[in-house]
Predict the structure.
Amino acid sequence: MFTLRLKTRYVETDQGGIVHNSAYIIYLENARIDFLQSIGLDINELERKGVQCPVVSQSVKYLKPLYSLQEIAVQVQVASFSKVRFFLSYEITRGKDKILTGQTEHCFLDRYFKPQALSSEAIQAFGSAT
Amino acid sequence: MFTLRLKTRYVETDQGGIVHNSAYIIYLENARIDFLQSIGLDINELERKGVQCPVVSQSVKYLKPLYSLQEIAVQVQVASFSKVRFFLSYEITRGKDKILTGQTEHCFLDRYFKPQALSSEAIQAFGSAT
Amino acid sequence: MFTLRLKTRYVETDQGGIVHNSAYIIYLENARIDFLQSIGLDINELERKGVQCPVVSQSVKYLKPLYSLQEIAVQVQVASFSKVRFFLSYEITRGKDKILTGQTEHCFLDRYFKPQALSSEAIQAFGSAT
Amino acid sequence: MFTLRLKTRYVETDQGGIVHNSAYIIYLENARIDFLQSIGLDINELERKGVQCPVVSQSVKYLKPLYSLQEIAVQVQVASFSKVRFFLSYEITRGKDKILTGQTEHCFLDRYFKPQALSSEAIQAFGSAT
C-alpha cells in the first residue's frame, strides 16, 4: 500500500463550491506515478526508452465531496496483473472519511503504440508489491 | 442521441504526445451539460435553485489515442434512470474511429448535499430522451 | 484580426462562481493556435520538424468576470515582430462587454531549445497579418 | 518572503515535452493562497464572508522550461499595496535555476463584485509582510 498526501487546490473547485470530479482523476495519477517510481518503474525513464504506460480504462465512485485546500491521502496498490496488463486500486480519504474508491487498468506500449508484454522488472515489481 | 462536436486542445496533450486521459472526462461533461440543457435541464438554472447534479460514479474505456487539434464527436444518451438516479452512456468518435466508451451515474442533491427524488420534469425529460 | 468563438466550460469555473483566471490563458492559446494556422504556421507541423514556439512572456488584464457556459469571442492579432521574436495582442469580449486584454511574446526554438531566427515563411506571414 | 515547494505534475506537461505555460499560473496561485493564509488572510474564510480576492492583472516571464516531476520552489512577496489594491511578486526556481518571474495585482470585492477598501487586517498584514 502506497500513500500520497496532498492538498486540494483552489483552481480544482467549481461553481458548485466543491472539488471538480476531474481533479480526482489527477490525484489518482499523481499517486500512481509516485507509487510506480517507488517500486522501480520510473515513468519518465520508461518514456525515454520509448515505452508508454497509458490508462486503458478507469472507474471511480465519488462517496463524499471535497472542498478547497483540504489535506487528503491517496492510497494505491496493485490489484492484479497478467502478462500484458496490470490493475491498480485506489482509495482517497480525508481523515476518517472515505472520499473515493477507484480502479485503473494499464498496459505497456512501444513507441508505435503496439502492446508489449510486461518486462521481467515490471512483473517482479508488481509481484513484490501485491 | 445527442452529439457534441469539439476540437481537442493543445493544452490537453501531455509529454506522451497524446491527449491526456483526464481531458476525455471533461469532454464527457461538456456533452452531458449540453445534452441536459437540450432536454430542459439547465445546470446553471438548477444550481441557482440550490440543486446540484454531481457525478456519483464514472467509468471509461480508452480505445485509441487522440492527438492535439483533432475534431471529435461526443455522443451521449440516457442509459437508464430510477426515482433517485440516472445513468448516461457515452461514445467518443473521430471519423470512423471509436475512441472511448463510458458511463456516468448522477443524482440530484439539495444545497445541503441531501439526495432528492428526481423531479417530474427530470423524469419526463429522461423518459422522452430514452 | 482573427476571432475564435468559444463557450466557457463548467469545469473552468471555481468556487467563487466565476471562470478561473487560468482558463483565460487557455482561451488565448486556443485563439493563437488557430490564428497561426490560418496564416500558414501550423504548430503540429512545426513541432514535427523539431521547431517549438513557446510563450516567452505573457500579461493579461481581467476587466469583467465570466460565468459558465457563456459565448465569448477571442480576438488575436500580430502586435509586432523582430528577427527573433513576435508579439501578439488579444481581446476577449462577451457581446459588447470587454472581458480581457492581453499580450504574449514568442520565439522559435529548435529541438535543443536553442533560439532560431524567424523563418522567411514566418516573416512573410506576420508581415501580411500585421 | 514566503516559499512553497511543490513537484510538477505529469498532467501539466504538453506534447512539447515540457510543463505547459498555464501550469505556472496555478503554481503562483498555490503559493499566493498559502502565503495569504500565513499572514492571516484565509481565502476560504474571506469567501464565506462574501469577500472575493480576484486577480486583476498578471504578467509572467518564462526563463527556462520545466519538466515533469521536478521539485520547484515558488517564492511570493508583497510588492506594494494601496487603499484598494495589492501587488505580489513571484519567482520560481529549480535548484539554482531561475525559471519564472511574475507579478499579480489584486483587489477585494464584495458579493456584488463591488470593489472594497482594504480592511485594516489586510493593511496590517501587508504592512508587516512587506
